[in-house]
Each structure stands twice: as C-alpha cells, then as structure tokens.
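[stage:ingest] chain + small molecule (heme C)
[stage:ingest] validated
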Amino acid sequence: MGCADCHTPRQHTSPDAAELLANQTFFPFTDLLLHDMGPELSDAVGEGGATPSEWRTPPLWGLGLILQRSDDARLLHDGRASTFHEAILWHGGEALDARRRYEALSPAEQEALVHFLGRL
Ligand code: HEC
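[stage:predict] done
[stage:export] tokens:
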C-alpha cells in the first residue's frame, strides 16, 4: 500500500545513544520525517522550517488504545479526523498514491487495515 514508506514499522536506536537507550529496536510506525501532504492538509501557516503542508509522520503505535478509551480523541495535526478511515482519506501530496490504493480496496479490506491499525 505504501503506508510503511512513511509509517516505518521498525526503528533502531544509535549505538551512541545513552547506555540504556543504545541499540534498541522498537516499532513506532514512523520515519520521524517531514512530508509534504499536499493541499488537503495545508493549513496556510508554516511552523519553523516546515511549509504549511509539511507534517512530521506521527507514530501509529498506541493510537488504537487512545481511540478506544476516549470518546473525543482526534487525529491529524488539527484534530479534523476522528477515525482511522477519515485520517487516511485526508492524505494527499506525497501520500496521494497510498490514499488512492486505500480507496481502491474493498470495504472488507479497508476494515481489515483499520482493524490492524487499532491493534498497534
Ligand atoms: C508520504 C508519507 C505518508 C504516507 C505514504 C502515509 N502517511 Fe499517514 N501520515 C503522514 C503524515 C505526515 C501524517 C500527519 C498529517 C497531519 O498531522 O496532518 C499522517 C497521519 C496519519 C494518521 C493519523 C495519525 C495521528 O496521530 O493523527 C493515520 C491513522 C495514518 N497516517 C495512516 C496511514 C495509512 C494507513 C497510510 C497508507 C494508506 C498512510 N498513513 C500513508 C504521512 C504518511
């Protein structure tokens, strides 16, 4: 689908990090990088060195629990989405191809992906 191009499942800490944190493998589902998400997610205000449509890939781990435990949990930088499905449909720019692949899935396949995201 291409989601993992940005929501990179696995990261490994540097051997030069503090002793307890060095050489650790963890699974945040983010590359920690900025991406141009297109006009869909542009809010007309640049922050720091980022343009108005650039956002850092958020980690997906634990998001399912947050959505499960809170009635008013919101997704994306301005909280405009309240479900994984909605959040994916707002993806544009560098993520447009991934969104289109998601849109081309059958409802059952979309549900399976959303179910997977809820278990991270
Ligand atoms: C080009 C990089 C890129 C690709 C490809 C991509 N995403 Fe994202 N994703 C992002 C960025 C950046 C954000 C944050 C956007 C914002 O905050 O407005 C995000 C936000 C999200 C969120 C909301 C997370 C939160 O904490 O608010 C979900 C869920 C998500 N993506 C799932 C997916 C899925 C599923 C796919 C594949 C169909 C996908 N993404 C493909 C970069 C990407």
